[in-house]
Request: fold
Amino acid sequence: MKLIEPTGGSIYFDGRDILKLSGGELKAFRRRVQIVFQDPYMSLNPRMTVFDIVYEPLRVHSIKVGDPQDYVLKLLYQVGLNETHLFRYPHEFSGGQRQRIAIARALALNPEFMVLDEPTSMLDVSVQAQILNLLKEIQAKYNLTFLFISHDLGVVRYMSDYMAVMYLGKIVEIGPSDKVFENPTHPYTKALLSAIPIPDPEIARARSRLTIKGEPPSPLNPPRGCRFHPRCPFYMEKCSLEELPLIEVEKGHWSACWLHF
Reply:
């Protein structure tokens, strides 16, 4: 989204490096891409009503619609809210309701792509399920592409067709979600998957878990070679000498671990 000015690298969207965009080009790009933030309490202006919050993107982009109130109301219906919520303020809503308002705001410009930054991590479990199901419905209805960011791999599997596992700023494994879950090849991915809670206590006690020790190193001074090697239970000397690039372990499934090569 280029909300924070990057110091390097590139981000391609539809064949263009968006880091090179500015002014009118950047504004036009942001009509196509919207974001739902992690914290539903901080991402809404407490001095604005729901109507003003949801309609604001259209004001920013000078987009005219027939009846603004009807337009906003249709968006609220899409996310499970109604006309009684139209002129209330954020403090009058629960966390789940606020996130619904944020989703309605993100849909206001009819985007092609949405960044979902831990959209359910601050909600209780029952509300999480409601919001995830809502997002799936919206994705199907509007033919949207989501970039879903999460630490909860159970949620990732439910939401994602394709996933990338990152450690200390580097992608260590990437591929179709089913393949990564069924055949994880990087030790960090294996440890994350083994940490997913299982609701059946007997199965949970019987399974073997891959645990990792220690704390992640500073991203300002990452270790040489594979960044995971100081905590890896399968450490080999070459892991600390050279960083392995992503290599295709099966069709469409890539991993960066010396253990398999």
Remarks:
- Residues 125-142 form the longest helix (18 residues).
- Strands lie at 12-13, 16-17, 33-36, 113-117, 145-149, 162-167, 170-176, 247-250, 253-255.
- The CA atoms of residues 168 and 218 lie 8 Å apart.
- The two ends are 36 Å apart (CA to CA).
